[in-house]
């Protein structure tokens, strides 16, 4: 019996030693990975990864840090304009975190380019770029760990809110100074001041109803087309599928839009407005009957044509809408 007890104790000691050795190896591997990531992050805020680095530092355990990965296609032959725009915002976000006083090894920012890690795209069944995914410190990415780019846009501030929601790490976005706005404002004020100075004795142009009406109409068309939404959300100009090369200018969801889409809607609204103006002039002007008929026909044609296009855009975003006009 004593021999059995001694044997049992020896087995327990051996198992405990193996577990301790395994835990020590795990800690050593984790320490090496964190130190390597910190070294890379000290040189570049966004760590470029290929397939091997991705599998070792992002997918393989152990890991006590989160990794935000942007999957993109930046090579010129890919012609992904959106990827370049998103990369600029992503760099701003990563730099804001890297050079903040709160910087720790709790989270890292990385990037996988399709031409450097196509095997990663295949492994994740990914067929579009850019895509942002959070790989949490524990467990696999959940649905919310994939950033809704088409809905929220790729502005650094929007990405920072998503990162805070998924990792509890708050990043204050610090943008490089942009003097374009102040310069444009100064130029506008200079032009207005110059006009007032040159025509100080005759300020009737300030009371020109047509001029003010045109300025107000331009502002209304810009706002109704979604320019303010673009300014707040920062959506991509368009979307190009990296595999098929097909470019989409109209977003397929009613919850998002592209910048190109707002330009198209602005053009269509402008066409309808011009048609209504022609109809009004045809009914109220003192021109001869022949010219008024031409204006009336042109006005009706513009309203019908551009309203039909507007309705077709609406149908493409609100699937199931039953009505159409001229064009389906």
Automatic annotation (TrEMBL):
The keyword Nucleotide-binding does not apply. Pathway: Protein modification; protein glycosylation. GO terms for biological process: magnesium ion transport; protein N-linked glycosylation via asparagine. It is a multi-pass membrane protein. It is found in: Cell membrane; Endoplasmic reticulum membrane. The chain crosses the membrane at residues 179-198, 210-229, 264-282, 294-314. Keywords: Cell membrane, Disulfide bond, Endoplasmic reticulum, Glycoprotein, Magnesium, Membrane, Signal, Transmembrane, Transmembrane helix, Transport. The keyword Magnesium applies. GO terms for cellular component: oligosaccharyltransferase complex; plasma membrane. Residues 1-22 form the signal peptide. Coiled coil: none annotated. It comes from the Eukaryota. Belongs to the OST3/OST6 family. This is Dolichyl-diphosphooligosaccharide--protein glycosyltransferase subunit MAGT1. It comes from Aythya fuligula. The gene is MAGT1.
């Amino acid at each position: 019996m004593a021999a059995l007890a001694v044997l049992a104790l020896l087995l327990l000691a051996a198992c405990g030693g193996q577990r301790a050795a395994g835990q020590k190896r795990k800690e050593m591997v984790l320490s090496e990975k964190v130190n390597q990531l910190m070294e890379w992050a000290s040189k570049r805020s966004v760590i470029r990864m290929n397939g091997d680095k991705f599998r070792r530092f992002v997918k393989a355990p152990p890991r006590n840090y989160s990794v935000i990965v942007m999957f993109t296609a930046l090579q010129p032959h890919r012609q992904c304009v959106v990827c370049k725009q998103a990369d600029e915002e992503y760099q701003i976000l990563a730099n804001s975190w890297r050079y903040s006083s709160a910087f720790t090894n709790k989270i890292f920012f990385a990037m996988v380019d399709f031409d450097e890690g196509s095997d990663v795209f295949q492994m994740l069944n990914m067929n579009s770029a850019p895509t942002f995914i959070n790989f949490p410190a524990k467990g696999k990415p959940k649905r919310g760990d994939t950033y809704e780019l088409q809905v929220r846009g790729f502005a650094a501030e929007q990405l920072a809110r998503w990162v805070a929601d998924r990792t509890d790490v708050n990043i204050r976005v610090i943008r490089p100074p942009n003097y374009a706005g102040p310069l444009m404002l100064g130029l506008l004020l200079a032009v207005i001041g110059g006009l007032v100075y040159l025509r100080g004795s005759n300020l009737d142009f300030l009371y020109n109803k047509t001029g003010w009406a045109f300025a107000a109409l331009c502002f209304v068309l810009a706002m109704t087309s979604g320019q303010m939404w673009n300014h707040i959300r920062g959506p991509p100009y368009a979307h190009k599928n990296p595999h098929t090369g097909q470019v989409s200018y109209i977003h397929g969801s009613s919850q998002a839009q592209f910048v190109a889409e707002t330009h198209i809607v602005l053009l269509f609204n402008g066409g309808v407005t011009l048609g209504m103006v022609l109809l009004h002039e045809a009914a109220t002007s003192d021109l001869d009957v022949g010219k008024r008929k031409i204006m009336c026909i042109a006005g009706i044609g513009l309203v019908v044509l551009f309203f039909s296009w507007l309705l077709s855009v609406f149908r493409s975003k609100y699937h199931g809408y039953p009505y159409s006009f001229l064009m389906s």
